[in-house]
Write a sequence for this structure.
């Protein structure tokens, strides 16, 4: 089973592929690039009309998944980097990936 990145633009797909490779190397888990948003997945969305600075982003984490929205690819990159930094440093503890029937769970 694998979790996925939803990256509907070429720029978002490049970012998703970069982080998928990093995660594969550091955790051993596969993160596919999906054609649609999926429960438990990570969505990387670029919206040039978004009213935010060029490198800003909106990060939403819910039980259904993670959504990062930004005006530019740089914002998406910073958003996903921040998500993984927060996850890795949560309360000074390390985090663990585990396989579930829906993909991968971060605990």
């Amino acid at each position: 089973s694998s979790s996925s990145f939803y990256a509907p633009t070429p720029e978002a797909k490049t970012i998703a592929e970069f982080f998928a490779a990093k995660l594969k190397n550091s955790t051993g888990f596969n993160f596919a690039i999906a054609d649609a948003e999926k429960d438990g997945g990570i969505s990387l969305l670029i919206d040039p009309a978004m009213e935010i600075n060029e490198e800003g982003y909106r990060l939403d984490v819910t039980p259904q998944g993670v959504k990062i929205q930004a005006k530019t690819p740089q914002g998406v990159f910073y958003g996903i980097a921040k998500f993984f930094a927060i996850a890795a440093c949560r309360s000074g503890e390390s985090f663990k990936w585990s396989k579930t029937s829906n993909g991968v769970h971060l605990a």
Summary: The mean pLDDT is 83. The radius of gyration is 13 Å. The chain has two helices and seven strands. The CA atoms of residues 23 and 29 lie 7 Å apart.
